Automatic annotation (TrEMBL), chain A:
Annotated ranges, domain Solute-binding protein family: 79-429
Name the record gives this protein: ABC transporter substrate-binding protein
Family affiliation: Belongs to the bacterial solute-binding protein 5 family.
Species assigned in the record: Pseudonocardia xishanensis
Family matches, as PROSITE patterns: PROKAR_LIPOPROTEIN (PS51257)
Residues of the signal peptide: 1-18
Cellular localization per UniProt: Cell envelope
The keyword Methyltransferase is assigned to this record: no
InterPro entries assigned to the protein according to its UniProt record, in alphabetical order: Peptide/Ni-bd, SBP_5, SBP_5_dom
Entry keywords, A to Z: Signal, Transport
Pfam families tied to this protein: SBP_bac_5
Domain of life: Bacteria
TrEMBL record, chain B:
Protein name per UniProt: ABC transporter permease
Family indicated by similarity: Belongs to the binding-protein-dependent transport system permease family.
The organism of origin for this protein: Pseudonocardia xishanensis
Keywords from the UniProt entry: Cell membrane, Membrane, Transmembrane, Transmembrane helix, Transport
Location in or out of the cell: Cell membrane
Lineage: Bacteria, Bacillati, Actinomycetota, Actinomycetes, Pseudonocardiales
Amino acid sequence: MRSPLSRLLAVVATVVLAVTAAACSSSGPESGSGEKARLTIGAAAVPSSLDPRKSAPYEAQWIGMLYDTLVQRTPDGGFAPALAESWTLSPDARTLELTLRPGVTFQDGAPFDAAAVKANLDAARAGGTNFSGQLTNIASVEATDARHVTIALTDSGAPMLGVLAGEAGMIISPASLGEDLSRRSAGAGPYTLDRFEGQRLALTAWPGYWNAGALGVGGVDIDVFIDDSARLRALRSGQLDTAFIIPSQVREVGDSGLELLRPKTAESFWGVLVNTGRKEFGNPLVRQAMMLALDRPAIARAVFGEGGCTPSAQPFDANDWAHSPELDSLPAAQYDPARARQLLAQAGLAGGFDFELQVGTAQNYTQIGQILQAQWGEIGIRVNLRPMENVQFVTARRQGDFDGTVSVYLNARPDQSAFVKNFYLPGGIFNPGKYDLPGTAELLSTSSSGADPASRAPAMHQLMVNALNDGPPIMPICTAPRLAASQRGVRDLDMTLETKFTDVAVDPK
Amino acid sequence: MRPTALLTRLGGGLVVLWLVSLLTFALLQLVPGDPAELVAGDSATPARVAEIRTQLGLDRPLVTQYLSWLGGILHGDLGRSVFTGDPVADAILRAAPATLSITFVALLIAVVVGVPAGVVAGLRRGSWLDRAVSLLATVGIAMPGFWVAMLLVLVLALALNLLPATGYSPLGEGVGEWFSHIAIPATALGLATAAELARHARGCVADVLERPYIRTALARGAGSAWLVRHHVLRNAAIPVVTVLGLQAGRLLGGAIVIEMVCGVDGLGTLAINAILQRDFPILQGYVLLSAAIVVVVNLLVDGTYSWLNPKVRAS
């Protein structure tokens, strides 16, 4: 009798040989089915929910494909018709009238009309959604007729367009309003949901979409790779058509013959937020000194590499109407440690002071934290870095439980005015110290009255310059575009936050 | 194993699982930040967070939460994901095949490569073969699995285009596709275990060869092949099986890192996501499953002892 061990070994060897033989005869990766090729995207995180009412900031991109929005934000920051064909803001900016696109139906067959829009907005205003807070200035929503909706507002209404270009404008078929839509779709968007399992989201182009002619792909598959390098390897090996990348991968993208996609307008910015209710941060001189001690180009280059993040003392991208062309050349926005020391001395803090700076655990955060520690150390401010796990970090920030915190924030979502409300006005979610610069609310109201960017810009620029000169509680470091890379055969790909992936096409492989 | 002994072992296993459930639940309560914070999103008001906390039942007393979870498990219900509302059991069943495939093939590679190499090295102590095996085993243990995985992907997938760089293909869609996807992660994961097994097998064989009964058998004129089969391998197998049992748990843990590197959508990825999203029900289900696997493997190892060694059977 043979020993059990050798019998086991024999079995094992046979299985391995059989499997290896089978592997050698395998074919290559399967090609896309249907007439048009599918687009495969490598994403960085699994959407927590496909319900627009529950989505997190960067998930709107996937959800918008299922629902479409009333208004479409264009890559350059403007607005284009979508479910709403046109809109007018009354001269007093208190009434927004939407004209809806005729003949549109939801994917469940129900007609898309003014009653559906009213039902959605009213339901969200009643609370229970992540964007209900964006609709608090709506006084009433009226369906004037099947194609017209009149929204009455309690304050200047220009920012409402941006709101309707986001989750709040993703109209759900009224029949499904009362249901949990985490894992199914009830919208009127260009794609229907095939499946959403684990790390993969599969969508198929919907022939009933109002703009179905623009659909260049048969479907979209979204594969999630949490690990940045694994995602790029999948793209390089041809398993993905496009993927999000991080700034340090730009060189590898170029070397491997892939196309780099850089959005025209950076949608977020890195900055340090100080709590004006704590330490010495209530003193404008201290904040001014801290601004002057920031060497932004050095931080941006060291942490994000060349072109990964554009140094700026304001949160908005240079292509954004809210960006003030002269702000970055003002004395208060320069790197001037000598002047910073003077200001600290003037504040009676020649010997400096200590504070705790909270950072996330990702490498970007800790690197920025360390450089800030050095730069502020130059003027005598002693920074104690406290790396915090993500949820803890976000919670501390939300509850105002911090001296200072390094973060990346969206700068113009749902509207540029949200930045001012969040950071500069009392009651703002990122203003725990109740920072209140006189005149800010009035300038914001003026800026929110005009429908077109040119009329909104002057007041906004003035507001930002005033805050800069006062020493802003949020100290911008650089504006960061979300980078992506794609294969050469992918055409007209837009990877900005509000893309609906309608025009993109993939050459047959 | 006698029935009473078997029942004792099973009972012990259940107690271990219950303790694990209690510990997991208690430890997760110590984690700062709860799922409601994440579900609510970055810029939610405190009122919205409180509202979601109530929806998720997180405002209930801890004992009530634990008992309702435990009660669910006894009825085969592991709860539902905080984010998606999907049953935890479904999420685990969907992710398990990838991880189990990788772990199983890794274990297979480890046994097929490690054990024979160790046995041969042990039988030919001091030879160049022995030295080569020992050297390779040391290198194998020293190299981190994730690094080996990245190296294999760079060479086999990106440079030579022989295997897919990432992902997993279910066994149902063809054995070839399945194997081509798990070859890299399984090799990377199995290498260290193979090295560990080789070192143990070598040591055990060398140890057995020193025993008096081997000398006696040789003196009786036993052929060396017969001797190796009947005395050396069987006696050397017990410590090797012990190590194998311990490694099974390690492989399951190691698979988490390898899955991230190789972009495999398995249990490890599920667990990492659950941690990032504070999806406690998923995490509790995952820990409980891992504990159950380790308990079962230990039972199997115990069973194997008595199969290999009659003395254990008698005791």
